[in-house]
What we know:
Elements: H1 3-7, E1 11-13, E2 18-22, E3 27-31, H2 43-52, H3 60-72, H4 94-97, E4 104-107, E5 113-116, H5 119-125, H6 134-143, H7 153-164, E6 168-172, E7 177-180, H8 186-200, E8 215-219, E9 225-230, H9 231-234
Amino acid sequence: MSNNQKNEKTKETHPEGYSLVWDKRGLIVSITDYHAEPFFLSWKKIISMAESMGYEIPSKEKVADEEVKNEDSQADVLSVKPKENSGMNDRKTDLESASMALPGYWISPAGTITTVRCHITAVFENPEDFGFTQEELAGIYDRHEEKYKANGKARDEILEACISRGWIKVQRFKDVWTINTVNLDAKNERVITKFVQTMLSSGKDGVREYDPYMPVVISDEKGDTLLRSTMGDVA
C-alpha cells in the first residue's frame, strides 16, 4: 500500500492466516499463512465494510445510467497528463485530473486498441469492422422501435453480437474498469493483460492509469461476471 493510502482513513483486521486492510478505495487481502483454512466474507459483510468507510454502494439502475452518460460524453478522450517531477499527491489518473474524462475502448479480435467516444457510435461509424452493414444496424433498431444509437435493447443486442464475434469492450468509470469479453480463454487473457499493462505504463491516447489497485470487473457479453480483480493483479 502506498504512503498516500496509509495516510487515508483505513481499517484492518488479522484473522488467522490473513491480513485485511481496507479504505474507501477498496479491500486488500494478504495471505500470511498458506496453510490456513479458506477465509470467507459474506456479501453483507463486504458491503458493511465498504459503507463503514463512507463508500456508497450504487444500485444496478445507477450503474446503468452512469454507463449511458459516460458513453454519451464527448470528454472520454481528453488528454490530461500529470505534471513532470510532481509528488505522489499529484500523480492522479487522467480521470481524477479531469473528472469527465471517462474513456471507452474497443479491442479488436486482432488486439488493436481503439479509443472511442461511444461504443455504439463506433459500430455505426465502421459497421463492416464489426461484421455488420448499416442496413442491418438500422434494422435492429427498427425492430425494437428505438431511436438509432440510443441506449436500449437494440444497443444491447448489437454490442453483445460484437463481443460474441471476438471484440472486447472496455469502459472506465470513476471507481472501476469494466471489460466485456466472450470468454477468458488464453488468447483473450493475453489481450486483456496487454491492454492493462499498456494503461499502467505508457497509456493510450494521453490517458493512463496510475493506480494499480483500481478495481477491474471482467464480464461476458451478457454481463455475467467472469473475474473481479485489480489493474495491478491483471497486469
